[in-house]
UniProtKB/TrEMBL annotation:
TM ranges: none
Matching InterPro entries: Gfo/Idh/MocA-like_OxRdtase_N, Gfo/Idh/MocA_domain, GFO_IDH_MocA-like_dom, NAD(P)-bd_dom_sf
Claim: Lipid metabolism is one of the keywords in the record: no
Entry similarity comment: Belongs to the Gfo/Idh/MocA family.
Domain of life: Bacteria
Keywords, comma-separated and alphabetical: NAD, Oxidoreductase
Ranges for domain GFO/IDH/MocA-like oxidoreductase: 135-249
The Gfo/Idh/MocA-like oxidoreductase N-terminal domain, residue ranges: 5-119
PANTHER family linked to this entry: OXIDOREDUCTASES (PTHR22604), TRANS-1,2-DIHYDROBENZENE-1,2-DIOL DEHYDROGENASE (PTHR22604:SF105)
Source organism of the structure: Pseudoclavibacter helvolus
GO molecular function, one term: nucleotide binding
Name assigned to this protein: Putative dehydrogenase
Length: 329
C-alpha cells in the first residue's frame, strides 16, 4: 500500500503526540505542518522532520498531501475539516469532530460530497482493547438490561486558556465528556441497542464563568442505561464497568494514556473470572492507519468509529451541555 502523506493542521500539544507516533504507523508519513502562524509551523516542521510548512490555505492547496490531522481548538474543527475535504484531502479530526451536532452534520455532508473519509479521533476506539470489549458484548447478546458506568476527569490547574473559555467551546463536556459518552455509545451498539433510541434522561453539573467544570449524566434506551461523569477540575479514574444479567466487564483503565492503549480487562461470566490481556498499541498511529485504510478502500468511515456513533455522541454531548448550562442559569 502506498504511504499516506499527512499534514498536521494546528501545531499544538496534541499534535506533538500525533507527530511523535505517526512514524510508528504502517501506512503514514509526515509531509507538512500548517498553522495560522507560518513561523510556528516552520519550527514544528523542523522538530519532527516535515519537509513543508505554511498557512492552512497553502498546505491544503498542495497536491502532495493526501490526508490531514485537524488538531486545532474545537471551534475551528468543522471549518478546517470542510476546507480540507473541499481541497481533496481525507480528514482525521481530533475529538470532538465539532462542538455541535449541526456542525458535525455539515462535516459529514462535505465528506459525502467529496467522496473522502472523515474519522473522529476518539483514541480509545482504535485498539485491540476496544475490539476485545466489543466482541464480548456482541457474543453475549441479548444481554439486556445492560448498565454502563464510566468517567474521565483531570485537574486542569490554571483557569487560563481554551478549557475555561466558553467562546472556544471550553469545559469538561466537550473536552473529555466525549470519552465516557463514546464508550457508552460503543457498548450500546455492540449490545445491539438502536442508537437512535439512546437519549439523555438526566444531567447536572457545576458551571463556573460560563464553563462546565464537572458534570454527570444518565443516558438511556430500552434495556440500556449509562452513567457518565467528566471533569476539568477534579481528578477522576478512567475506570469503566459494564454490567449485564449474565456477568460484567471491568476495565480499570478504559482509556489508557496518551501514548499507549489499555491492556487488561476483567470479564466475569458463568461463575468465573477471566482476566484478558491484549496487545498495547500507540493510539495515534492506529488512528492514522484507520484513515489510511478507509482512503485506500474507498470508504467514507472507519469501523472503529463509524459515523453513526459520531452522530450519536455529538447529539448526546449537545443535549448534556445544554442541560447543564441551562441548569446554571
Amino acid at each position: 500500500m502506498q504511504k499516506t502523506r499527512w499534514a498536521i493542521l494546528g501545531p499544538g500539544a496534541i499534535a506533538e503526540s500525533f507527530a511523535k507516533w505517526l512514524p510508528s504507523s504502517e501506512h503514514g508519513e509526515l509531509r507538512a505542518i500548517a498553522s495560522r502562524d507560518p513561523e510556528r509551523a516552520a519550527v514544528f516542521a523542523a522538530r519532527y522532520g516535515a519537509e513543508i510548512s505554511g498557512t492552512y490555505a497553502e498546505i491544503l492547496a498542495r497536491d502532495d498531501v493526501d490526508a490531514v490531522y485537524v488538531a486545532t481548538v474545537h471551534t475551528t474543527h468543522a471549518e478546517l475539516a470542510i476546507a480540507a475535504l473541499e481541497a481533496g484531502k481525507a480528514v482525521l479530526c481530533e475529538k470532538p469532530l465539532a462542538p455541535s451536532a449541526a456542525e458535525t452534520e455539515r462535516v459529514l455532508a462535505a465528506a459525502e460530497r467529496a467522496g473522502l473519509p472523515v474519522v473522529e479521533a476518539y483514541k480509545h476506539r482504535f485498539s485491540p482493547f476496544a475490539r476485545a470489549v466489543d466482541r464480548r458484548l456482541e457474543a453475549s447478546q441479548p444481554a439486556t438490561p445492560l448498565k454502563v458506568r464510566t468517567q474521565f476527569g483531570f485537574t486542569a490547574g490554571s483557569a487560563d486558556g481554551r478549557l475555561f473559555d466558553p467562546e472556544l467551546a471550553g469545559g469538561a463536556i466537550f473536552d473529555v465528556g466525549g470519552y465516557p459518552v463514546s464508550f457508552a455509545v460503543a457498548a450500546a451498539a455492540s449490545a445491539g441497542i438502536a442508537l437512535e433510541h439512546l437519549n439523555l434522561t438526566q444531567a447536572h453539573g457545576r458551571v463556573e464563568a460560563g464553563v462546565d467544570v464537572y458534570s454527570s449524566a444518565q443516558l438511556e434506551a430500552e434495556g440500556f442505561t449509562a452513567y457518565v461523569d467528566c471533569s476539568i477540575d477534579t481528578q477522576l479514574s478512567k475506570r469503566a464497568d459494564i454490567v449485564g444479567e449474565g456477568g460484567w466487564i471491568t476495565l480499570e483503565s478504559a482509556y489508557g494514556d496518551r501514548d499507549l492503549s489499555p491492556q487488561t480487562l476483567d470479564h466475569f461470566h458463568d461463575g468465573q473470572r477471566d482476566t484478558i490481556e491484549v496487545d498495547q498499541v500507540h493510539p495515534f498511529a492506529e488512528e492514522a492507519d484507520a484513515l489510511s485504510r478507509a482512503l485506500r478502500d474507498g470508504r467514507l468511515e472507519s469501523s472503529a468509529m463509524p459515523w453513526e456513533q459520531t452522530r450519536t455522541v455529538a447529539r448526546l454531548l449537545d443535549a448534556w451541555h445544554a442541560t447543564v448550562l441551562a441548569g446554571a442559569n
